[in-house]
Write a structure and sequence with these properties.
Layout (H helix, E strand, L loop, with lengths): L1 H4 L2 H29 L5 H13 L3 H5 L1 H10 L2 H24 L4 H29 L9 H34 L9 H23 L8 H7 L3 H14 L1 H30 L4 H26 L4 H21 L3 H29 L2 H32 L2 E6 L2 E6 H24 L7 H9 L15 E7 L5 H14 L4 E5 L5 H11 L8 H25 L3 E5 L2 H11 L4 H12 L6 E6 L2 H11 L11 H17 L4 E5 L4 H22 L7
Helix pairs in contact: 2-3, 2-7, 2-8, 2-9, 5-7, 5-11, 5-16, 6-7, 6-9, 7-16, 8-13, 8-15, 11-12, 12-13, 12-14, 12-15, 12-16, 12-17, 13-15, 14-15, 14-17, 19-26, 20-21, 21-23, 22-23, 22-25
GO cellular component, one term: cytosol
EC number: 2.7.4.9
Organism: Actinoplanes lutulentus
Length: about 675
C-alpha cells in the first residue's frame, strides 16, 4: 500500500475517491431517511425511502451508454471538476427545500429528482476517474492501487458513513437536546454529502493536474462523431476476447452476489432462522468481499490473473449453489462468505486486467460499461430474485435433527449458481494465457510460490519421441533400431540422450553418474539434471524440431520424476515444476515406456561387464519405486504413452513402436509436406 501512496498524484486521487465515496454512502442513507421522514404514514414512509433508492437505477439506463464516450472525448480533469461542482449544488439543494416552505410531497419529489440528476452526472465522473488512474501509477502497482480503492469504496467508507449517521442520531436522542430543522442529523449528513463534492472538485482542479490534457490518440479519436466513438467502443468490447470475457465475467460475479442478497430474506426463513439471520447473511457477503479484495492477491501470489479471474467466478457461483443445498445457518454463512470473496476477487482481478490492457483512448468507454453494468446487474439481480422467490412456494422436508424448506428460493440459487459457473468457465477459456497447463496443478504451485509456466511457443514441424524405462530395459537398442528405420524412409533423424548429449551435458553426466566420494546430494542431483535438460532442449531438441526432424531421445523429463522424485523421494511436484521450467514446457509427442522387472533389468546391466554407475548401484527398493513411478506416469496420460513389456523379443518391440509412430508421422507430413520424405 505504501508504494502507491508515495505517488503524490495517486495519493490525492485516492483521498478524492475516499471523500466522494463517503459522500455517496452517507447520501444514500440520508436521502432515503430524509424523504421518509416527511411523512407520518408507515406506507408512505416506505414508498418514499424505496423510491429515492430505486431511482438510482434509472440514470444508468438513460445516460450509461454515452457516459464513457464523454470521459474519453473531453479533458478528464475538467470533467471531474465540473461534475463535482454540479453535484455540490444539486445535493445541497435537497435539505434546503423544506427550509423554504416546501410541502412534504414537494420535498420528496425534489429529493427524487435531485438524486436522479446527481446519479446521472455521476455516471460521467466514474469512467473519467477510472480512466485517469493508470496514468498516475506504473502497471506493476495497478493491482495494489485497486485493492486500496476498492477496500476504501466498499469497506471503509460505508462503515464510516453508517457509524457517523448512527452516532449523530444516538447522540441527539441521548442528550435530549432540541435542534432546529436545518441541524437535524439527517440534514447534517446531506450537507456533508454536498460539501464533500466541493472539496473533491477543489483538490482535483488544483492538486491533480497530471490527469489533465489528452494524448495524441485521444485527440485523434475525438475527431470522430459522438456516435462513431460510441460504436467503436462497443465494437472493441465485442471483438476482443479478453475484454469480452472480463466484462461478462464481472457481470456474472455480481449477479451471483445480487441473487443471494435478493433471496436472503426468504432464504433465512427457509433455514428456520429469524430476521437477524437476513442481516447476518447480508453483512457476511460484504465481509467476504473485503477479505477477497484484501487477502486474495497475497494468497494466490503469482498465479496468472487471467486464470484467477475465471476461477473466482466459478468460486462465487459454486458457492451460490452451495447455499441452495445448505440446511443450517452455519453452512449458509460459509457459503455467503465465499460468494462475497469470489465476487470481490473477480472484480479486483478484472479491473486490474482492464487497467493494464485497455488503451487510454478507449479506457473511459470500457470502464463505463463495467462500472455502470455492475450497478445495473447487481440491482436487477436483487430485484428480480426478490420477485421470483416471492412468487414461488415451499415444502418443508425433515432431515432428522434438522428440517429444511425446499422452496423457489433454493431452486433459484441452484439455477443461478449453475449459470454463473457456465459463465465463469466461458470467461476462463476465452482468457486463458497458459493453455495446456493443468489448472489445479498451477493453482497449487502458485499457492506455494511456484506457478507453472506455459509451453514456450515455437513452430514444431517435427516429432519428438522419448524412450523411458528402468535400468537394463533395452532403451538404447530400441533407439538405434527406430532411428535406422526412419533414416531408411528418408527422414531427418536426430538421436540424443539425457544426460550427456552436449559438451556441457557430458560434464554433467560425469558428475551425476560417476562413483565419487563427493557425490551430489539428492537436490543437487535434481538441479544438475535440470541444467543438462535446459541446455539440451535449447541447443539440440528445439532446433531439430523446428526444421522438421524426428528427435529420438534416450530419457527425458519422466526419468527425473521417477528417479529423483520417487527414487530419491523428493517432492514430485517440485521436480515437475523444475523440469517444466527448464524445458519451457516442451513435451514429447510419444513416450515409449519399456517396462522391466528391476531384477531382470539389473541382471542385464551386470552381463555387460562395464560396471554399475551410481544409479544402477542403488538398492532394489529404489528401482522398484522408479518402476512404479514410470507406470503411474503412463497411466495418467495414456494417449501419449506406449507401454511395452521389455521382456518381449527385440523385433516385436521395434515393430510396435514404428506402428504407433506411423500415425504421428502421417499427421506431421500432412501439416508440413515440405519436410515429408520424397
Amino acid at each position: 500500500m505504501r508504494s502507491v501512496l508515495r505517488l503524490r498524484g495517486f495519493r490525492r486521487l485516492w483521498l478524492v475517491l475516499a471523500a466522494a465515496s463517503f459522500g455517496d454512502w452517507i447520501g444514500i442513507l440520508a436521502t432515503g431517511l430524509f424523504a421518509s421522514a416527511q411523512f407520518d404514514n408507515p406506507a408512505a414512509q416506505g414508498a418514499a425511502f424505496g423510491g429515492t433508492i430505486a431511482v438510482r437505477l434509472l440514470p444508468a439506463l438513460l445516460l450509461g451508454p454515452i457516459a464513457g464516450v464523454i470521459a474519453d472525448r473531453f479533458d478528464r480533469r475538467y470533467t471531474m471538476v465540473i461534475v463535482d461542482l454540479l453535484r455540490f449544488v444539486i445535493y445541497l439543494s435537497i435539505p434546503l427545500v423544506p427550509l423554504f416552505g416546501g410541502s412534504p410531497g414537494l420535498t420528496v419529489a425534489w429529493a427524487t429528482i435531485a438524486t436522479f440528476l446527481g446519479e446521472t452526472i455521476t455516471l460521467i465522473w466514474i469512467p473519467a476517474k477510472e480512466a485517469a488512474v493508470p496514468n498516475l501509477i506504473p502497471k506493476s502497482r495497478i493491482e495494489i492501487s485497486n485493492q486500496l480503492t476498492l477496500i476504501t469504496t466498499y469497506g471503509i467508507t460505508p462503515i464510516l458513513a453508517a457509524l457517523l449517521l448512527s452516532a449523530l442520531t444516538a447522540g441527539l436522542q441521548q442528550s435530549g437536546a432540541s435542534l432546529p430543522d436545518w441541524a437535524q442529523p439527517v440534514q447534517i449528513a446531506l450537507y456533508i454529502n454536498a460539501f464533500s463534492r466541493l472539496a473533491t472538485a477543489i483538490v482535483v482542479f488544483f492538486g491533480i493536474k497530471e490527469i489533465g490534457g489528452k494524448s495524441a490518440a485521444r485527440e485523434q479519436a475525438a475527431e470522430q462523431t459522438l456516435g462513431k466513438q460510441f460504436t467503436a467502443g462497443w465494437k472493441y468490447i465485442g471483438s476482443t476476447p479478453m475484454v469480452r470475457g472480463l466484462v461478462v465475467g464481472i457481470f456474472g460475479a455480481f449477479a451471483a452476489g445480487g441473487i443471494v442478497i435478493g433471496a436472503a430474506r426468504t432464504y433465512a426463513v427457509s433455514l428456520g432462522a429469524g430476521e437477524a439471520a437476513f442481516y447476518l447473511l447480508f453483512g457476511t457477503i460484504f465481509m467476504g468481499l473485503a477479505l477477497g479484495i484484501g487477502l486474495g492477491p497475497m494468497i494466490v501470489r503469482d498465479l496468472s490473473r487471467r486464470r484467477w479471474f475465471g476461477m473466482n467466478i466459478v468460486l462465487a457461483s459454486g458457492s451460490v449453489m452451495f447455499l441452495g443445498l445448505a440446511f443450517h445457518l452455519s453452512m449458509a454463512l460459509v457459503g455467503a462468505l465465499l460468494v462475497g470473496a469470489g465476487a470481490g476477487m473477480a472484480f479486483l482481478a478484472g479491473t486490474t486486467l482492464l487497467y493494464a490492457e485497455i488503451a487510454d483512448e478507449l479506457r473511459g468507454r470500457v470502464f463505463a460499461v463495467v462500472q455502470i453494468g455492475v450497478r445495473m446487474v447487481l440491482l436487477l439481480a436483487i430485484t428480480l430474485s426478490g420477485v421470483l422467490v416471492g412468487l414461488g412456494s415451499s415444502r418443508r422436508v425433515d432431515l432428522g435433527a434438522f428440517s429444511v424448506d425446499v422452496s423457489a428460493t433454493r431452486v433459484l440459487l441452484l439455477v443461478g449458481g449453475a449459470i454463473g459457473i457456465w459463465v465463469g468457465i466461458g470467461s476462463f477459456r476465452q482468457m486463458d494465457d497458459k493453455k495446456g497447463v493443468p489448472v489445479l496443478a498451477d493453482l497449487w504451485g502458485s499457492l506455494r510460490g511456484r506457478p507453472l509456466s506455459p509451453a514456450e511457443s515455437f513452430v514444431q514441424a517435427g516429432v519428438f519421441v522419448v524412450f523411458e524405462g528402468g535400468e537394463g530395459a533395452g532403451k538404447s537398442t530400441q533407439v538405434t533400431l527406430l532411428s535406422e528405420a526412419l533414416r531408411e524412409q528418408g527422414r531427418d533423424v536426430v538421436v540424443t540422450r539425457e544426460p550427456g548429449a552436449t559438451d556441457l551435458g557430458s560434464r554433467i553426466r560425469g558428475l551425476v553418474l560417476n562413483k565419487v566420494e563427493d557425490a551430489p546430494s539428492a537436490r543437487a542431483e535434481a538441479l544438475l539434471y535440470a541444467a543438462d535438460r535446459a541446455h539440451h532442449v535449447a541447443t539440440v531438441v528445439r532446433p531439430a524440431l523446428s526444421r522438421g526432424a524426428v528427435v529420438v531421445s534416450d530419457r527425458y523429463v519422466d526419468s527425473s520424476l521417477a528417479y529423483q522424485g520417487a527414487g530419491r523421494t523428493l517432492p514430485v511436484q517440485e521436480i515437475s515444476w523444475l523440469s517444466s521450467w527448464a524445458t519451457g514446457g516442451l513435451k514429447p509427442n510419444l513416450v515409449v515406456l519399456l517396462d522391466v522387472e528391476p531384477g531382470v533389468g539389473l541382471t542385464r546391466v551386470d552381463s555387460r561387464g562395464d560396471g554399475a554407475d551410481r544409479l544402477e548401484s542403488e538398492s532394489r527398493a529404489f528401482h522398484e519405486r522408479v518402476r512404479y513411478a514410470f507406470l503411474d506416469l503412463a497411466a495418467a496420460d495414456p494417449k501419449r504413452y506406449l507401454v511395452l513389456d521389455a521382456s518381449r523379443p527385440v523385433d516385436e518391440l521395434a515393430t510396435a513402436v514404428t506402428t504407433r509412430l506411423a500415425g504421428l508421422l502421417s499427421e506431421v507430413d500432412e501439416a508440413y509436406p515440405e519436410n515429408a520424405p520424397s
